Amino acid sequence: MERYWNQEIETMSREDMKKLQDERLVAQVKHVYENVEYYRNLMDEKGVKPEDIKSTDDLYKLPFLTKADLRDAYPYGLLAKPLGDCVRIQSTSGTTGKRVVAFYTQNDIDLWEDCCARAIVAAGGTNEDVCQVCYGYGLFTGGPGLNGGSHKVGCLTLPMSSGNTERQITFMRDLGATILCCTPSYAAYIGETLHDMGYTTDDIKLKAGIFGAEPWTEEMRRSIEKSLGIKAYDIYGLTETSGPGVSFECSEQTGMHINEDHFIPEIINPETGEVLPDGETGELVFTSITKEAFPLLRYRTRDLCVLSRKKCSCGRTLIKMSKPMGRSDDMLIIRGVNVFPSQIETVLIEQGYSPNYLIEVDRINNTDTLDVSVEMNPEQLSASKDDIQNLEKSLASAIKTMLGINPKVHLVNPKAITRSEGKAVRVIDKRKLHD
Ligand code: DLL
């Protein structure tokens, strides 16, 4: 029997959901227009008034918001509530430029944690579970979001944060953790450490993992499921829209249900801004219709994916988004070819390698170069130099089949690639460093 956190909403008819969205959108546009001068100016420039937005059918009339707008308006320019009503900020880990700072009222936090509770229940969580949260705590939304959701469900919550991996495993064993929440790359590292410590999946009680915050492939999913003996569920979100829990996977594991009562999704052509029909790949845009303090309308996520209304066996009627295949700004253009790191990950794992790899791109004599380093498997350590060269060649040819361009592959020693405890850094684009 499928269990839901909020059955009424999660299985609501399309018609009722649209009605709910229509009402919430109209109220939200009014709230934003009245309280956020920055967005009011954008609407005025476009000649749109709140009265023009009568339902979700009018969504396309509203201006987009981008990360550049968030930077412009930093820190308080998009705040829609008096500071006295706000109780928390969270922020992105942003390595370049200004960080994104998002604000929350208590009600915003309640709704956000509710979204995370839906994800935990969809992964089989109940109040009998012991939920180990190893997303970072602090400014990053992963730890606080899943922590709050886990409390709501009534799980015994282990607020571990990331890092100190052997201690994670000791707690996992001692307390009998049944659900693990962290990035997929950290889950892979935890699985590897478990085995390095001489344990097997028989020594732990984990049954499910809720992994997100970075792109990961189906191949990576299977590899983690095997190493930890679990079912691995995807979860998606971004600081700008609250954090994890914008969408979550169910037992079908074929995409993530979007919490449409809070977030209206659209897919647009990233070049032209034109709205695309369900089923086409494009940039995901969200309008948050319940957020009070930081309500972004038509926010461009830069994540590329597909929406689907195909009936789901779990009974949820919430629209599904595919795994984001990467961000439009993560896409590498190498010798004119569009390359997503996830394509390389797929090949590496399919060919039997671990998900520990590093992609380096450079430009030498005006030609782009692509180097992929991946750790050899322990049994390959005794291979001859010739054998290693042959393995590298065959891996390079598999990558070339996938991408259409020839990489240089380097098999490096096991553990040579730095492990990630949060979002993995898989790409170094040296071309940017030269600029
Ligand atoms: O990563 C929120 C989060 C925390 C999601 C924990 C899931 C679990 P940001 O740091 O603002 O927020 O980064 C948001 O991460 O635009 C995507 O590019 C990427 N991302 C998040 N979840 C997924 C996922 C958090 N499941 C950015 N698959 C987003 C692929 C993801 N990419």
Q: Can you put this structure into words, describing what you see?
A:
With 435 residues, the protein is of the alpha/beta class. The protein has two domains: 1-326, ANL, N-terminal domain (Rossmann fold, 3-Layer(aba) Sandwich); 332-434, GMP Synthetase, Chain A, domain 3. 32% of the residues lie in helices and 24% in strands. It contains twelve helices and 21 strands. The strands form five sheets. A nine-stranded mixed beta sheet has the order 4-3-5-6-7-8-9-15-14. Strands 11-10-12-13 form a four-stranded antiparallel beta sheet. α8 links the parallel β5 (179-182) and β6. α5 packs across α6. The radius of gyration is 22 Å and the shape is globular. The termini are far apart. The structure holds 5'-O-[hydroxy(phenylacetyl)phosphoryl]adenosine (DLL). The site of 5'-O-[hydroxy(phenylacetyl)phosphoryl]adenosine has 22 residues, from β7, β8 and β13. 5'-O-[hydroxy(phenylacetyl)phosphoryl]adenosine (DLL) is lined by residues 92-93, 135, 141-142, 212-215, 234-239, 243-244, 301, 303, 323-324, 327.
